[in-house]
Amino acid sequence: MKITKVRCHVLLDPKVEVGATSSAQDDLVVEVETDEGITGVGESDINAWIGRACIESPGTHTMDVGLGKAILGLDPTDPPSVWDRVYVKTAMTGRRGALIHALGALDMALWDIAGKAKGVPTWQLLGEKVENPGQPYASLLPQDATFDAFLASLVRQTVEAKKIGFTAAKLETLICGPYATMGMDESDERMIEIIAAVREAVGPNFTLMVDVGYAWNDVRRAREVIETWVDYNILFVETPLWSDDIDGYAELARTSPIPIAAGEWLATHYEFRELVERGCLHVLQPDVGRVGGLTEARRVCQLAAAHDLTVVPHSWKTGIGVAATTQLAMVTPQMPFFEMIPRQFADSELRRDLLTVQPEMTPDGLAVPTLPGLGIELNREAMEKFEVTAAKFT
Q1: CA dist., res. 99 & res. 34, Å (int)
Q2: pLDDT tens profile 66-112
Q3: 384: Cβ–Cβ under 8 A, 6 or more apart, which residues?
Q4: Computed from CA positions of residues 242, 245, 251, 253, in that sequence, does the dihedral angle turn out positive or negative?
Q5: Is residue 198 classed as helix, strand or coil in its secondary structure?
Q6: Structural domain boundaries of the chain?
Q7: Measured between alpha carbons, how far is residue 371 from residues 117, 194, 375 in Å?
Q8: Which of 12, 25, 241, 248 is most buried, judging by how many CB atoms fall within 10 Å of its CB?
Q9: Thinking of the domain 3-120+379-386, which architecture would CATH place it in?
Q10: Spelled out in words, what is the top-level CATH class assigned to the domain 125-374?
């Protein structure tokens, strides 16, 4: 089997807000076609136009080839070999960043093809199924402009997530810092009000995580606030510091009373390796698309296993990324949870309607995937509605 064509789709939610701080309202979806009629689907959490350029751009020599051209003619049923080959052929364009994120969408599609070619779910090609695969947690970020409304919505959504069947949730307490939602600028001391209210509402046996969205620029302040949360049984604190503050993460990980998690923006297992070797994290959070696809995400999981660390992947896009992450969860023993945005709470129509077949949470949890490949199906009518060109959106 050979790869014959790559098609890129830039998709946009009809209610896009250019001033928003959320990538839920756009998407880069790729379809990789083969000479045997099998097509694979992937996505990545990246500026969709930049990602498309990384794939469709030409090149002038053997080590700055566009991603789309670099994979043509290769065997899609051996994604790791394709990944390693393409990584070299595009090295001068970018061994990290946008190019790797775009490569992640292609790699995801190749694993979809590989599973379909064998007639098995992709996880069967990734490794042996673990006895108790990790389950999705509900990632909750209300779109309310005032603190009181935000707190009330987050309490309500967490309670509803528990009723749906989730046993864990992440509270996106983005009330200050660069990721502050809906223009809020509250004191970080108020985060404990949210945590306390949610814990009281869901009880002691429901797992809670807290994402503060890079809220702090110094370790001392981060530790002071985190120490006030000790009594609320928090599984981890996500992205307390800026991603490049490796020294800060190393110090905070040594002294924080609550485990530290990060990694959503990282590209390749090489970036994770530096953080692991420096002792910066307790929980690794690769995003399957952004890290470089299932090939690199699996390497991050292997790295975590070698250092006795936990993996809780990031997955903020659509059901495509959730489906790919689900495949990884089936074979990763150190992954207790992975991210999922409940469709019931999704403000983005794109996120809700892109797929007709996708992973769904039930009162009994998420079922083991049985359909070939990633086990998803694109909603072609919705695709046509969401797809945009530069002429339609600038």
Answers
A1: 22
A2: 999 999 999 999 999 999 999 999 999 989 999 999 999 999 999 99
A3: none
A4: positive
A5: helix
A6: 3-120+379-386, 125-374
A7: 12, 40, 5
A8: 241
A9: 2-Layer Sandwich (3.30)
A10: alpha beta
